[in-house]
Design a protein that fits this description.
This protein is mostly helical. It has 20 helices and 2 strands. Strands 1-2 form a two-stranded antiparallel ribbon.
Length: 427
C-alpha cells in the first residue's frame, strides 16, 4: 500500500484553502480565458475538431490537477502534442486517437510507477531549448492550411505538407480574406499588451481572447464568408471501435506511436512542472514542496486516458498556461480545477457563440503563440553560450523540424553526450 501512497491526492494539496480561495479563483478564470482559444486551435490543427480540444482541456485539466504532482500545473492539448498527432490523424484518421491515447496513458502511468520521472527531469537545458524551438516552428507550419483557407495537402511530414499546401493555393486561387484575418489577428495579438496598459492598466485581458472576440464580431456582423469552427457538442461521448482501429495499424507503427505520445506527454509535463516551480518561487515565494515527478506522470497518464476515452486527445502539462496560472496568483491546484470548470461552463452556455469563431483567427493566435514559445531572446541567449551547447541547441531544433520530436530529442541527447566527451578529452 505504501507504494501507492505517494500517488494519491491529499488535503495538503489545497492548504490553506479558505485563505487562498480568492487568489485561486481569479487565477483559474484567468488561465481559463487564455486556454479557450488555444484548446480550440489545437483541436482544429490536429484534425480532430475544436470540440476535441475543449474536451481535452476540461477532462485532462481537471484530472491532472487532482492527481498530478504539481500544485501549479495546467494540463490540456498543447502544440507539442499536435506535432505528434497531426501525422497520425492524417494517416489513420481521428478514430486512432482514442486507442493510442489510452495505451499511451497507461505507459505514462507505468513510467511513474517505475520512478522514471527523476531522470526525465534531468534533460540538459540546451536540448530542451532546441526541442522547444523545433516545436514552435512546426506549430507555425501547421497553420498554413488555415492561413490560406484551403484543405491541407496529403502527407504526414509537416514541412512537406506546408510546402505542398502553399503550392496548391498558388495554383488555384489564394484566399485573401483568410490571410487578411490572420494578419489582423497577429497585429492585435502583438499590439494589445501595450493597449491593455493604456485602456485598463489594472486589469489584464489576454491578447488571445481579444483577437478571437474582435475577429468573430467583425466577421459575423459584416457577413464575411470564411471558415468557422462549427457546431460544438454539449455532451461527452465515449469513443469506441478500439480493436478495429488497433488492427488497422501495423504493429511496428502502433508501438512507435504509443511510445512517442507517452514520452512526449511525460517530458513536456515534467518540463512544465519544473518551470512552474521556478516561477512560483520567484513570484509568490511559495513554501510548498516542489513537484513530485512520479506522481505527475501518474496524474498525466490518468488525464490522457480519460480525455482520449471521452472523445478528446492525449494531453500534457502546458507551459504557457501554467505560466499564466502562476503569474495570476495561483496558490494551489484548486486554480487548475477552476480553469477546467470555467471551460465546462463555456461549453454548456456559450457553444453557439464559440461555433462562429473564424478558424483563421485561431491560426493567428497559434502563430503568435509559436512566436512566444520560440522566444527570440531565448534563441539569442542559446546562441551566445559555449560552442558545445550552441551545437546541441541547433542540431536538436533542426532534427525536430526535419524528422520528428522524439528522434529530435534522441539526436540532441546523443550530440550533447558526444560533444561533452570530446571536450573533456581535450582538457
Amino acid at each position: 500500500m505504501a507504494l501507492f501512497t505517494e500517488f494519491l491526492p491529499s488535503a495538503n494539496d489545497y492548504k490553506p484553502f479558505k485563505k487562498n480561495f480568492r487568489h485561486n479563483l481569479i487565477a483559474g478564470i484567468s488561465v481559463g480565458v487564455v486556454a479557450l482559444p488555444l484548446a480550440l486551435g489545437f483541436g482544429v490543427t490536429t484534425g480532430s475538431g475544436a470540440a476535441s480540444g475543449l474536451i481535452t482541456a476540461i477532462i485532462a485539466g481537471l484530472i491532472a490537477a487532482v492527481f498530478g504532482g504539481s500544485n501549479f500545473q495546467v494540463s490540456g492539448p498543447t502544440g507539442a502534442m499536435t506535432v505528434v498527432l497531426v501525422p497520425i490523424v492524417s494517416k489513420y484518421g481521428v478514430a486512432a486517437l482514442a486507442p493510442l491515447g489510452i495505451a499511451a496513458g497507461f505507459l505514462i502511468i507505468f513510467l511513474g510507477f517505475i520512478k522514471v520521472g527523476k531522470y526525465i527531469d534531468r534533460v540538459p537545458f540546451a536540448v530542451m531549448e532546441g526541442f522547444t524551438l523545433g516545436i514552435a516552428l512546426v506549430i507555425a507550419l501547421q497553420q498554413v492550411p488555415l492561413v490560406l483557407g484551403i484543405q491541407r495537402a496529403p502527407g504526414s511530414h509537416t514541412v512537406l505538407v506546408a510546402i505542398d499546401t502553399f503550392k496548391s493555393a498558388i495554383s488555384n486561387s489564394i484566399n485573401w480574406t483568410s490571410i487578411s484575418i490572420v494578419i489582423f489577428a497577429l497585429v492585435i495579438k502583438f499590439t494589445w499588451p501595450k493597449m491593455n496598459k493604456m485602456v485598463a492598466p489594472k486589469v489584464h485581458i489576454p491578447a488571445s481572447i481579444v483577437v478571437v472576440l474582435l475577429t468573430t464580431l467583425i466577421v459575423h456582423f459584416l457577413g464575411i464568408k470564411v471558415a468557422t469552427i462549427g457546431a460544438i457538442p454539449r455532451k461527452f461521448e465515449v469513443a469506441g471501435n478500439y480493436l478495429e482501429t488497433f488492427n488497422a495499424i501495423p504493429i511496428r507503427e502502433l508501438g512507435y506511436a504509443i511510445v512517442v505520445i507517452a514520452l512526449l506527454g511525460a517530458i513536456e509535463s515534467l518540463l512544465s512542472a519544473r518551470v512552474a516551480d521556478g516561477m512560483a518561487h520567484k513570484i509568490i515565494d511559495h513554501e510548498q514542496r516542489k513537484h513530485q515527478p512520479n506522481r505527475e506522470l501518474f496524474g498525466q497518464g490518468l488525464a490522457t486516458i480519460a480525455a482520449s476515452f471521452l472523445g478528446g486527445m492525449p494531453a500534457t502539462g502546458a507551459i504557457a498556461r501554467t505560466s499564466v496560472n502562476v503569474r495570476a496568483g495561483a496558490r494551489s491546484r484548486f486554480a487548475s480545477i477552476v480553469h477546467a470548470c470555467f471551460l465546462l461552463m463555456v461549453v454548456l452556455f456559450l457553444a453557439p457563440v464559440v461555433s462562429i469563431i473564424p478558424t483563421a483567427a485561431l491560426a493567428g493566435v497559434l502563430i503568435g503563440t509559436s512566436y512566444r514559445i520560440a522566444n527570440p531572446k531565448s534563441i539569442i541567449e542559446a546562441l551566445r553560450t559555449t560552442y558545445g551547447e550552441r551545437a546541441v541547441f541547433i542540431v536538436t531544433a533542426i532534427s525536430v523540424l526535419a524528422i520528428d520530436l522524439i528522434w529530435g530529442l534522441v539526436i540532441g541527447l546523443l550530440t550533447n553526450l558526444v560533444l561533452k566527451k570530446l571536450l573533456s578529452s581535450r582538457r
